Amino acid sequence: MQEDVRHFLRSTTGTLVTSGIAVVVVLVLIVYMGSTKNFGLPQYLQLILDGLRGGAIYALIALGFVAIFNVTGIINLAQGGFVMLGAMFCVQFYNMPFCAGMSPALRLALAAVLAVIVVGLIGAMMERVAIAPARNSPQLTLIIITVGVYTIMWGAALLLWGAGGYQLPAFSTLDSRDQILRFGQIVTSDNTYWIFGGVDLPKGAQFAGVMIKAQSMWIWGTTLIVLLGLAYFFERTVLGKAFRACAVNRRAAQLVGVSPGRMSLLAFVVAAALGAIAGIVLAPATTPMYDMGLKPGLKGFVAAIMGGLVSSPGAVAGGILLGILENVGAGVTKAGFKDMFAFIILILILVLRPHGIFGGGAGGVEEE
Amino acid sequence: MGETQQSHTHVKYAGWLPGRHALGIIAFAVLLIVLGLVETMRPFGIRFSDLTSGIVTMDTMVRAGILTIAVVGLNLLMGYTGQASLGQAGFYGLGAYASAILTVKLRVLALPAWLGTVWWWPWLVILAAMIFVGAFAYLVGKPILQLRGHYLAMATLGLGIVIYIVLRENFGFSPSEFNLTGGLDGIPDVGRLAIGGFTLWPIERYYFLVWAIALAVIVLSLNIVNSRVGRALRAVRDSEVAANAMGVDTHTEKLKVFVLSAMYASLAGSLYAHFQAAVSPKPFDFLGSIELVLMSVIGGIASIWGAALGVAVVLVLKELIRTRMHLIIPGAGGEQEVIAFGILIVVIMIFMPDGLSVGGVRFVRNLFGKPVHSA
Lengths: 368, 375
What we know:
Chain A has helices at 2-10, 12-36, 41-72, 79-94, 104-131, 139-161, 214-236, 238-248, 250-255, 260-282, 294-306, 312-332, 338-352, and strands at 180-187, 192-198, 206-213. Chain A is mainly alpha-helical and 368 residues long. Chain A folds into 2 domains: 1-36; 40-173 and 213-352, Orthogonal Bundle (ABC transporter involved in vitamin B12 uptake, BtuC), CATH 1.10.3470. In chain B, a hairpin with a 2-residue loop joins strand 1 (194-195) and strand 2. In chain B, helix 3 packs parallel to helix 7 and helix 11 packs across helix 12 (304-328).
């Protein structure tokens, strides 16, 4: 009897039925909780849009987890450190005296590029100094090493930049105040009209609709460009193909002349650069400081698990889904619970869908 | 991926005779009693902290005792099932909060106020908390432990953070209506423990209590390790398939250890709450869990004594770096502390992945020209 049930749950129909039930239950819960707060469509749309912003960031970080896990089998808990270092270095270079004469836009672009390069080098250094000497150690040892590296990054950031928060200007306005794009209805004392992308709100006017910060656009755009770039790299270049070969079968890749050591190095550089990019685009939307990487890092990990830990498209989908779910969940319950949803999802995924929600991660984390 | 499962922990168990245990336990107990007596008696006006020129204080020793209890549980879990718990601070926090809430917030919970005045109530709470946390770990562990690989590590990572947030957010209740955990501020004024009219405070009295419990935990764990259950667990760690074939119910054995380690953590948390006389959510967050794992790993996960060693090493190093770092690097502050700590973790993990206890024994033996293959 129990066997029958288990068998049914593992079959395609069973999976579809249980997933369908789960989705319906979650939706009903959300709508019920939302109704106690009188949420309408605009409120939900707003929550989803804000969630998409976090989701894009998690997707970038999750891709870093996947790149490293695929090639080395390591879960790199220092990933959040790359996010923080990216943001902090960008702030640092932006405020450097040597580029004081340049236009702010050029300065920002230069700072971002330099920050990505520096963090990429830090990733390479991490692999060479801390990971490569222990390559044959058990996974647990390697995880602890990455925690140690994260601790070093944290301490170094405290040393270099202190415990205070910094600021990076929003990319569109190059000012600490970001543009807000509005999509919805404006109600003033004498008339009512619709705006799409309108920036200014007339004095005393009421607004009903959704608002998007221009920085969100930058985050989505950057994520999209990075995804396209990665796809090109992995599909079209020799190095990228070697990298994928190494992820699929390390031994076979070695036999045809791909060095796993160098691919491991490449994985860390790619992950570090991805983390840094995430940190840089996130920076204007938050307060860059020494501990800003911890939470996005862990949530990127959850996103990677949601996608099955070995699949890049899965990681992106997982990140976006996670961003939306946690934001809607926090919106209908309590803001303080926002971080909790990610980890409840993590536990549920591990227990119910250990190959990732989309089931693609067959080789990722092995199951009985 | 069988080889990733703790194949490094080849400790020579055959060499662990009961007699050597007894000797080790007695020596350890005598050392602890002497150290405690120094603080209590103050011979020649020497205080305990003078022995180490102020680096290790009584406060650190009590902390070490409390953490040893939690880390012994973690070692049982990691060393004997090959699974890490990255959320042990969650159980630790549940124990601490249970003790604090049930002794301080009697009025909020509509419990009779006289419970706050009797000496045995806090002890009862400690026991109840252990049972509650154990049951909770059982419910959570049952589904998770069926999975292999590093699922437990990942799931407990999530669990620890969820517990931390639930405690920080007062279980989702509005603080003005039903204030249980006090949010970020925590709960102040947790009472001291007492037996009859004898209060276990000042600190040297509490020191004796904590270390007596810690020793009891160590002895109990050593017995478990050397019992039938322990042998079954080692079989599970080395090869789950083989253990299964030999008639070991691997899932149940793993679950037992997971529950036990959670109960140890809860006990440690309760002792922590009565030691600090207050609880706040900060020590129980993700970094708290990581610190427990570090202590465990630095000491050596496959050794009960390694737990005490790991805790002592981490705490002493922290104090050492805090009080002496500025002599090596002028003007050094907390930042260098953190960096040095991180470097240390990486170095120990690269060069002594079995931890200081097992790795240290091997190092010493090799030094005297007696190479050992399995230790």
